[in-house]
Amino acid sequence: MVLEWYFLRVQVGREERIRKTMIARIKQAGLEEFVPQVLVPSEQVAEVREGKRRIRKKKLYPGYLMVQMELNDDVWFAIRETSGFGDFVGSRGTPTPMTSQEVENILGRMDESKEAPKMSVQFNKGDRVKIKDGPFENIDGTVEDVNPEKGTLEVAVTLFGRSTNVSLGYWEVEPV
Q1: DSSP strand pairing (152-159 vs 162-169)
Q2: pTM of the prediction?
Q3: 146: pLDDT confidence band, cut at 50, 70 and 90?
Q4: Cα(20)–Cα(68) distance, integer angstroms
Q5: What is the pLDDT of residue 113?
Q6: Could you give phi then psi for residue 120, rounded to 5 degrees?
Q7: In this structure, how many other beta carbons lie within 10 angstroms of the beta carbon of residue 166?
Q8: Residue ranges per structural domain of the chain
Q9: In the prediction, which pLDDT does 161 show?
Q10: What CA–CA distances, in Å, run from 155 to 54, 67, 124, 133, 166?
Q11: 116-131, pLDDT tens digit by residue?
């Protein structure tokens, strides 16, 4: 038995529901040994909202599932008949298995984020921002540096006619 990983296109926003339905269909058909894993590729992302740190799941590839399986006729039928299923990723309807390097990269990224979730920062160098908290409240500035690990920004503000860099949490600023 050769188990390979495949990408499946599914309806966007319903990935988790389709995954559960697919697993149920596979169990009902008694094909668990041919399809050991069905995953929604996602990572853990830390956000700060209203001063509180929250961890949420962020899909790496919205509208796709990763399935480890031995592709035979019974498995093909069980998966194709799952509602919300679109198609296999491959050329001209022929499912193309993922390379071991692709699988390692995606699974590694998923595992990494479980141990240390990345901070979700929506700012880039050069963005104009307005400080909404602290001693520099209501002052406009320009993002000079982004540190996603810490969730901080270096913002250049003009004080008394001179440019000064200020280190701020990204929740302390808003886009202009």
Answers
A1: antiparallel
A2: 0.67
A3: confident
A4: 15
A5: 76
A6: -90, 110
A7: 19
A8: 4-119, 128-175
A9: 85
A10: 24, 44, 11, 13, 5
A11: 766 666 788 889 999 8
- Non-local (6+) Cβ contacts of 99 within 8 A are none
Sorted by sequence, the CB contacts under 8 Å of residue 33 that are 6+ apart come out as 1
Q: Using an 8 Å Cβ cutoff, are 126 and 47 in contact?
A: no
Mode of pairing for the β-strands spanning 4-10 and 162-169: unpaired
Summarize pLDDT for 42-93 with one digit per residue, the tens: 988 877 666 677 788 889 899 999 999 998 889 889 998 899 988 888 877 6
Q: Assign domain 4-119 to its CATH superfamily.
A: NusG, N-terminal domain (3.30.70.940)
CA distances from 98 to 5, 6, 38, 52, 142 (A): 6, 6, 14, 39, 42
Structural contact between residues 70 and 1, judged by C-beta atoms closer than 8 angstroms = yes
Domain with residues 128-175, CATH architecture: Roll (2.30)
Q: State the amino acid at position 101 in one-letter form.
A: Q
H helices within 29-157, ranges in order? 73-80, 100-115
Q: Nearest-CA neighbor of 133 among 117, 155, 159?
A: 155
Q: What is the pLDDT of residue 49?
A: 67
